[in-house]
Amino acid sequence: MLSNKRIQELELVMEFEKVEECFKEVSSWIENVGRKRLKEMINLDDSLEMLLQAQKQFREFDLVASDYCRRGQEALKKMDRWEDFSSVDVQSYRVKLQSYRDQLEEFCNQLDENRHRICETVRLYEFFDKVR
């Protein structure tokens, strides 16, 4: 039983190394592109026309960002089996995995919040534009 468990742990480590490339690519994109673009979109303009332009730019960014989020989530899903292993040898990989999971979750939540905020702001501006 111990031998089988050890073999399974080694298989997981090999699988992690294959999946880690995807994690690194997604993580790098989030840090170098994604977070910067989200920060640029914090301040929205005061006119409906400029706001609609910002919404269009965000939608283009959102397509790419959502793809990275999806790819990261798929890679994490492949590693769900790690939860069953608690040996010391696997612990460092679990820490890395949790770090990737936290980073991805935080970014995807920020993306959702910005998507909602921009959409609601546009709706509000459109409403006020109709009232005038």
Automatic annotation (TrEMBL):
Keywords: Coiled coil. Signal peptide: none annotated. InterPro entries: Rho_GEF_signaling-related. Residues 90-117 form a coiled coil. Gene3D superfamilies: 1.20.58.60. This is PKHG4 protein. It comes from Rissa tridactyla (Black-legged kittiwake). The gene is Plekhg4.
